[in-house]
Amino acid sequence: MAGVIIFNVLMVMLGAGIASQVIPTKLIVPLLSGLHNIVGITMPPPEKVRAFILIWLGFVILLVDGCLFLFIFLASELH
């Protein structure tokens, strides 16, 4: 449980750092570029990169939390 809380806190802190421009986007752009290349979609224009990074972070949080919730829900139904 502590790992899930730590993961969420770190992801929210990363998102807050990017949104408040404490973390420059030039540090995150290579990761976003690699992710877009893996998925097979084009990179957003430079002025929208910050918004796309925040959207990806939101999806990652929802995906991880949703999978963990589903796993816990299904595991509790087996008893």
Structural write-up:
By secondary structure, this protein is an all-alpha fold. It has one domain (2-77). The protein has helices at residues 2-19, 25-39, 49-77. The longest helix is centred in the last third of the chain and has 29 residues, at 49-77. 3% of the residues are buried.
What's the domain count? 1
Question: Which range best describes the helical content: under 10%, 10-25%, 25-40%, 40-55%, 55-70% or over 70%?
Answer: over 70%
Distance between the termini: 20 Å
Gyration radius from CA atoms, angstroms? 15 Å
Q: How many strands, which pairing sense, and closed or not: the largest β-sheet?
A: none
Helix-strand makeup class? mainly alpha
Number of strands: 0
List keywords for this structure.
78% helix, 0% strand, mainly alpha, elongated, 79 residues, 3 helices, single chain
Protein topology:
Layout (H helix, E strand, L loop, with lengths): L1 H18 L5 H15 L9 H29 L2
Short description:
The protein is mainly α and 79 residues long.
